[in-house]
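Make up an example, fold above all:
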Amino acid sequence: MHRLAGIDSGVGDRLPEYVLGFGALLTLVLCGEIGVLLAAGSTVGLDGVFLIGVVTTLPFLAGISFGGYWLRDADLSPSRYPRIAGWILGSALVFLLINVALIAVMPPESWALVVGWLRWAVALGAGVGLLIGCIEARAIERSLAAERAALRAAHLEEQRDYLDYLNTVLRHEVLNAATVINGYASLLRREAATTDQHREWAEIVMDESDEMATVIDDVRVLLRTTDGEWTVEPVDVSRVLRDELQKLEHRRGPVDLETSIPPAVYVRANELVARVFGNLLVNAVEHNDAERPRVSVTVEPGPDTVRIEIVDNGPGIPDAEVDALFDRIEGRGSSHGLGLYLVQQLVTGFDGSVELVETGSDGSVFAVELPAATADRSSSDSEPAPAVEN
């Protein structure tokens, strides 16, 4: 165990440099052998055995050098390096011992052949060990990656089943309860409330039950974005915006609307894109303390993307909330709840972007950019919604 720990700490993440250095050392040894033989005028250098040893050594020297560069650029974890180093050293030692035994049994005629034989054995053993170590390391990495992927897939499937169960509970139990609460609160306000205070309390209960239903529906939409069946198609964003503006007027009371929406502007999205603009428009009015809320919607078609800006005259967004505006908020710490997180998730799913361009005491500006598309004439075109008056 102590010896293994020593290899781990010694090799660290510097194995590629060690391998390159080892290859360079063997090359210097070979060059030194040849230089000494030439200087001494020895005829051993012309011997066929020595020349065969030199020629057969060169591919392994090249392989060791290449292996060092490959290790430096490969995506192997450094935790694999000690194992590779073990293969290099072990294989070089085994080859060296075998050939030492052969030298003892069949001693060469000169010291030059002995040195060349030993150098050849070390180069061959180290090269083979490096090759085996790299192949094994890659196989281990791939096996671990496949195992991790399988575990992640199984974990995600378990999470998905659990989320589906929670969604079912939310929709069948909590949503039903919210509907009942809203119904009785409405009945109390209409039949039993005797003072303005009583009616205000009943309206608060109704608003909170509506908010509960909205959050549950947002959770359902978020689950749809992760169910593996996310598809996009050409969607007329002009029609979607007009529909959502009509809903805004019907549900949120008098609102001054200013629009610049060209007819039939298509983006790559699906029917859930309505939730993007529904949430942004509701936020523009719901958190607006102006005497009469004003919302401006501008659509700017481009060759690659379509930019939609939504401007309001509200009080702006507090500085403490700006940085994490589109993040998932645990609990109800943000006045914007789940809505803007849902917006960001949906827009990202459409390969688009959403940002808070500007905010201050005179209002906020949100910008959504979605990939542009052309109308799909293979599907039946729906009639455009009536235009909203400016």
About this structure: The beta strands are 233-236, 256-260, 266-269, 294-301, 305-312, 353-360, 363-371. Residues 111-192 form the longest helix (82 residues). The domain at 233-371 is CATH 3.30.565.10 (Heat Shock Protein 90).
